[in-house]
Specification:
Layout lengths: L6 H21 L4 E4 L10 H11 L4 E6 H4 L5 H8 L3 E6 L1 E2 L4 E4 L8 H10 L5 E4 L4 H9 L7 H23 L4
Parallel strand pairs: 1-2, 2-3, 3-6
Antiparallel strand pairs: 4-5
Helix pairs in contact: 1-2, 4-5
Length: about 180
């Protein structure tokens, strides 16, 4: 969490760090995507994120718009429109409107039709990255006794389960000798 009295000083430090990272990335032909973050984090509004990117003055720095974060207490279509000129990537997941849940699309409250309409209007053609775990699986994994898991733990467990499932599926499709 970033306290309001620290925000200006922290933003100054972020801009300085972004300039350094952008210069290194530019030498390698890379772009830097700064994520739209939730709650009291730096970059928790389109205005603040855009101010940091503009202050950085680097053409290879843009925004990774996390739809899950940009929907919390704010208008997602407005955030998309405001960030549009700088969009490099999108994180896709849903939430309950109160906290970031990283649920699969349509498992929460995000208006996906409005979000996709806004992305289409923005002419976004960058990467969509699913940063999500199905809601029921999250509930199941969190309910197991003696197991405290973070969202990152759940995503890794989900990926392991998917990999195991895909391995088993591949085996079941193999011809029997």
């Amino acid at each position: 969490p970033v306290l309001p009295k620290e925000r200006g000083q922290r933003m100054t430090a972020v801009v300085a760090a972004l300039r350094e990272v952008a210069a290194l990335a530019r030498k390698k032909g890379l772009k830097v995507a700064v994520e739209f973050l939730p709650r009291s984090c730096l970059g928790n509004s389109a205005d603040e994120l855009l101010a940091a990117i503009r202050a950085c003055r680097a053409k290879n720095v843009g925004i990774c718009l996390d739809l899950n974060h940009a929907n919390l207490g704010q208008s997602l279509p407005e955030n998309i429109a405001q960030c549009a000129p700088h969009l490099l990537g999108i994180h896709v997941s849903d939430n309950d409107g109160v906290d970031e849940r990283h649920w699969m699309p349509y498992e929460g409250v995000i208006d996906w039709a409005a979000a996709m309409k806004a992305l289409k209007a923005a002419r976004f053609n960058g990467a969509f990255v699913y940063e999500a775990v199905p809601r029921l699986l999250q509930l199941y994994l969190r309910s197991r006794p003696g197991q405290k898991r973070t969202d990152a733990d759940l995503r890794f467990e989900y990926l392991r389960m998917r990999q195991d499932y895909e391995s088993l599926t591949a085996l079941s499709d193999a011809p029997i000798a």
